[in-house]
Structures are given as C-alpha cells and as structure tokens.
Amino acid sequence: MFEILLYIALFLITVAMFGLIYRVIKGPTTPDRVVALDALGITLVAVIAILSIILRTNAFLDIILLIGILAFIGTVAFSKYLEKGEVIENDSNL
Amino acid sequence: MKTNNLILQTATKILLFVIVLFSIYMFFAGHYEPGGGFIGGLMTSGAIVLLLIAYDIKTVSKALPFDYKKVVGVGLLFATGTAAGGLLFGKPLLTHWFTYVDLPLLGKTSLHTAVLFDIGVYLVVIGTTMTIIQTIGESE
Predict the structure, then answer these.
(1) What residue stretch is flagged as signal peptide (chain A) (predicted)?
(2) Could you say which of B49, B57, B58 has the minimum Cβ distance to residue A73?
C-alpha cells in the first residue's frame, strides 16, 4: 500500500517536472527559464528522496543536500549574470 | 549603477559555514560511506565560488590569501609523500597502514594513512577549480 503511494507521488512529481520543462523550453524571457530550472532542481530532490525510500537505502541522502546547494549557487550565478552582466567581479567598490 | 547585495551577502555569510561543514563531512565520510576527497574538494570550492559571486575577487583574495597554484603543489606533495612513505619501511610503493586509536572524545577510531592521500586529492581539486575560475574571472 505504502509502495503504491510512493509510486503515485513519483508519477505526480514527474508530471510537475514535465510542466517545468515546458516552461524551460517555452519561457518567453530568460528569468522564466532560470526560475523553472531552479524548481526542476527542487523536484529532483523530491525524486531522489522518494527513490531512496523505495530502494530502502540511505546512501543517497547526501545527494539531496548536494543538489540543494548546487541549485542555489547556480541560480545565484545566473541571476547575478542577468543583473550585472558578469558573474564574478574584479572589484565591486569602484 | 550601484546595486545592493545585502540579502545575498547576509545569506552567504550563514550558508558558507553550512557548505564548508558539509564538505568536511563528505571528506571524512569517504572511507565508509559515499563521499571522499573529490566531492569534498568540489564542495569547498563551491563555497568559495559562492563567496566570489556575493563579493568580488579582491575581497575574497584578501580574506583567503592562498595562491591556488601552490595549493595544487602541496596536494601533490601529500599524495607522493604518502606513496613514498611505504618505501621507508621496506614495503612496496603506495602501501597503506592503519591502526586503532582511543581518542578522547571520539572513542575507538581507526586512523588510516589513506586519509593523507585523500587530503592530497582534496587540495588538488580545490586548487585546480579555483585556479580555473579565478583566471577566467580576472580576464577582461
């Protein structure tokens, strides 16, 4: 019973990911695509959490935190590029 | 135009310690669990990259005054030193050695010379990624 619930949740998250992929492809502006990619990372975290319950292992739990950190750094880098035109500045106090 | 980065910089100050702690955990978990020197080094350089994004190259190089090319050298020295350590005791190259030690807080812990080799991997990964990112960031 619990297994079926997990598979249903996995299916629903996959549907949500397809919606986000549609937004990444279609998105009229670049910020739309960046937000959709960030949300894709978070749904990927959910997929990994459910998969590690189904596979009865805790070897993947580090990857959840890893994807959270990487999604944050990637989104911050993208937004800084959109805001200022460069990701890493030489000297911001000019 | 001068933009205000207050939210990003404050969040970075808190998140930096979480990321560095996670990378150190990943480094030391490598012997028994998923992790190791490579992913630990990548996460540490990820923390430094977050610092570079929130501030700028000048501020970060003032806070962390490392020459990352020398970090690569020190890491390779650790790896080759561990490899040559076995030769001193008449064993083949890269022979590792471990023992169980009673540490004050941690209790019975196994200390392994593979950790020293892993420190070499960790430093080389940090040095390589940070050299690449800093060189690309500095070029106009």
Answers:
(1) none
(2) B49
Strands (E), chain B: 98-103, 107-112
Q: Are A62 and A68 in contact (CB under 8 A)?
A: no
The mean predicted confidence, pLDDT, of chain A is: 92
The domain segmentation of chain A, as residue ranges, is: 2-84
Taking CA A65 as the corner, what is the angle to CA B61 and CA B69, rounded to the nearest 5 degrees? Answer: 25
Report the distance separating Cα A92 and Cα B100, nearest Å. Answer: 51
pLDDT tens per residue across span B69-79:
999 999 999 99
Candidates A12, A5, A47, A79; CA nearest to B11 is A79
Query: Pick from B26, B50, B55: which is nearest to A62 by CB?
Result: B26
Q: Distance between CA B92 and CA A59 in Å, rounded?
A: 34
Give the distance from CA B87 to its chain's centroid. Answer: 27
Mutating which of B15, B56, B139 best tests the A interface, going by the most A Cβ atoms within 10 A?
Answer: B56
Question: Which ipTM score applies to this complex?
Answer: 0.85
Helix (H, G, I), strand (E, B) or coil at B105: coil
> Each residue of B26-54: pLDDT tens digit?
999 888 888 889 999 999 999 999 999 99
Q: What does pTM read for this prediction? A: 0.88
CB distance from B38 to chain A under 8 Å? no
Instruction: Give chain B's length.
Output: 140
